[in-house]
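Hi L., both proteins are below.
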Amino acid sequence: MRMKNTDTYLKKLEEELIELPKKERQAIIAEIEDHFSNEIIEQMHQGKSKEDAERNVLHHFKSPKDLAEAYVTTSNQSNFDQLTVSFFVINLWVAGSGVLLAQLLDVYNLGGLTAGILAVAISIIHLFLKKDWRKLEVQALYNFKYLIPFFLFPASLFLFWLHGEINTYTVTYLVSYWVFIGFSYRLSQWFYKRSLN
């Protein structure tokens, strides 16, 4: 696909880089834009028109998709080496959800209930305060959306059935847990969208 001008190229490149955090995307776009400007100016000094210089630079440059793939691969390699506090905090949210899920087997365990609520609350507060997101954290938030409908919800039904005792308290706890995981799903998606901006 031939790009008409550098602006079109940069817009397409930014679209291809969407899975990277915003700060990283902006740095890449600024670097490429600077490279384009320098090349175009150099070719204009050699007597080419601006349009010819721009066409020539774009002709000799990788496609936005190929260039984005190279940057994403490099980013993945460096970010997976750097586990962060936020990555562990996202997993703490998952663990807290699991602890709250386990309460279906022992609904009168106040310690487990407290630990689960604290884990989730600490995670949510930390993520609300977070500003710069790394690739690994964004991926963890993205994967969180699959955990809820494909693991936590079915597991809650299974544990409720396994518990065997159906009373007002267990039914109320189960429904409350479903409300909690629905809230967690929405909030995790909000964090995910926020991490991309």
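That was the first. Here is the second:
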Amino acid sequence: MSAPFEPAGARSGILLLGLGNLLLGDEGLGIHVLRRLEAGYRFEPSIDLVDGGTAGLELLPLFRGYGRILMIDALGGDQPPGAVGLIRNDDIRRALEVKLSLHHLGLAEVLALLDLLGEGPVELALIGVAPARMELDLDLSPGVAASIPTVIAAARSLLTNWGVRSTSTRPESAYVASQ
């Protein structure tokens, strides 16, 4: 289960935030990845895994409690569907100029406000995946669904660089069988 919208970040200082709308196909990618991480991995030291849904400005109090934040979301641009990219720090605001969702509006403002207040995280990263379709659908498109292992590997690699060890508690084949 995802953590509530209150920073428990004093524990570890690291937030992994899944963003998106599960009702709009590929827009729900961040939440699908978050659920897979919650179900299949253990993190040492522990980190906070939060379902940010489609929150925008509501994320401001949450973000204030962390030194490092990793976000996972569908992200627009000129990449083919399913393409995975890692964007860091100031480049994230530029990437959010292409608005795929209403939460991108608030997210860009949250990052600007944190900078203005001098309360931004030391490190900020966004793993984005180019969507194929964002329409009423509970399932991810095949190309975006196939990108999930790559997104998870990128997240685990970044977290390792941040001093967090991750251990798989469930074989990848278990996910394929349950999809």
